[in-house]
UniProtKB/TrEMBL annotation:
Pfam families assigned: ABC_tran
Superkingdom to which the source organism belongs: Bacteria
Signal peptide per UniProt: none
Keywords assigned by UniProt, alphabetized: ATP-binding, Nucleotide-binding, Transport
Entry keyword Disulfide bond: no
Single GO molecular function: ATP binding
SUPFAM superfamilies: P-loop containing nucleoside triphosphate hydrolases
Region of interest (Disordered), residue spans: 1-20
ABC transporter domain segment(s): 30-267
Family recorded in the similarity comment: Belongs to the ABC transporter superfamily.
Source organism of this protein record: Stappia sediminis
Name listed for the protein in its UniProt record: ATP-binding cassette domain-containing protein
Acidic residues bias locations: 1-14
Length: 280
């Protein structure tokens, strides 16, 4: 189904939109319409529509350089758009007041590519960055919260005082996730969370994301190239190409799509090897 048509187009209810009568009622916590982004003469995204539903894990894929990170950064307000509208939790990000905007930002967490921990801060201090920015909490409470977040992501307590340079790749991802979860967000953005991890580490990280979604009801927006993640934990997949969301659907639905990139990605040699492994 072309994004923005049908699904999620029903009457608004509270935050976001709900889907039509007779369907499972899905609430869009993120709704992008007609988003256009460019740099100089080059348009990266044009008239793009996307819905992300509450408590789903949405996997966002597309060829290299198609604009997946640009879209994520546009939603986060780090890149300016030329046209369109982005609503998060039912609020239009362009018309939100500074206070409303801060309230929205408190409800989302972000894991940037490569973790992006501050190298001059230890893990505990990194996790506390969003707390310092958005909350007025005592140091003691922030320390307790940081330990709680470490536990949530499966890191030992003694990693709190370690520098990012002392952590393995998998630990950096977990510490970054702990920071993304610092404010108990409703929505998390993950930019290639399993890139650079070995298959076992990647599977463990996928598992963690799924468990957190199940336990906390998180909505997960995950940019990924990882077919295993798409297959094992994503409820829905959105494919970016030709400057827009080409198609959305489940992994099985992607296997039926005839668009050339989608076909070669989901039914190419690598993908089929993965399916064969599944069948063994
Ligand atoms: N600040 C910028 N100024 C100019 N061009 C940019 C800027 N940021 C991104 N681009 C361009 O936008 C395009 C999309 O980049 P983006 O990083 O979003 O791709 P991507 O889909 O995330 O790719 P990958 O899968 O390789 O990470 C690229 O051609 C990139 O060079």
């Amino acid at each position: 189904m072309r994004e923005g048509e049908g699904e999620g187009e029903g009457e608004g209810e509270g935050e976001g939109q709900v889907s039509g009568v007779g369907e499972e009622r899905k609430i869009a916590v993120l709704k992008a319409r007609g988003v256009t982004v460019g740099f100089g003469e080059t348009l990266i995204l044009e008239n793009l529509d996307l819905d992300v539903y509450r408590s789903e894990i949405l996997g966002f894929v597309g060829g290299s350089g198609t604009g997946k990170s640009v879209l994520m950064r546009t939603i986060l307000g780090l890149v300016e758009k030329r046209a369109g509208k982005i609503e998060v939790f039912g609020d239009d990000l362009d018309t939100a007041t500074a206070d409303e905007r801060a309230a929205i930002e408190r409800r989302w967490g972000v894991l940037f590519q490569q973790g992006a921990l501050f190298s001059s801060l230890n893990v505990r201090q990194n996790i506390q960055v969003p707390m310092r920015e958005h909350m007025n909490m005592s140091q003691r409470l922030m320390d307790e919260m940081a330990l709680l977040k470490l536990e949530m992501v499966g890191l030992p307590r003694d990693s709190a005082e370690k520098a990012p340079s002392e952590l393995s790749g998998g630990m950096i991802k977990r510490a970054s996730l702990a920071r993304a979860l610092a404010l108990d967000p409703d929505l998390v953005f993950l930019d290639e969370p399993t890139s650079g991890l070995d298959p076992i580490g990647a599977a463990a990280f996928d598992d963690l994301i799924e468990r957190l979604r199940d336990a906390l009801g998180l909505t997960v927006y995950m940019v990924t190239h990882d077919l295993d993640s798409l297959h094992s934990i994503c409820d829905r997949i959105a494919v970016l190409g030709e400057r827009r969301v080409l198609v959305t659907g489940t992994f099985d639905e992607m296997m039926q799509v005839d668009q050339p990139w989608v076909k070669s990605y989901f039914r190419g040699e690598r993908a089929l090897r993965r399916v064969e492994q599944d069948e063994v």
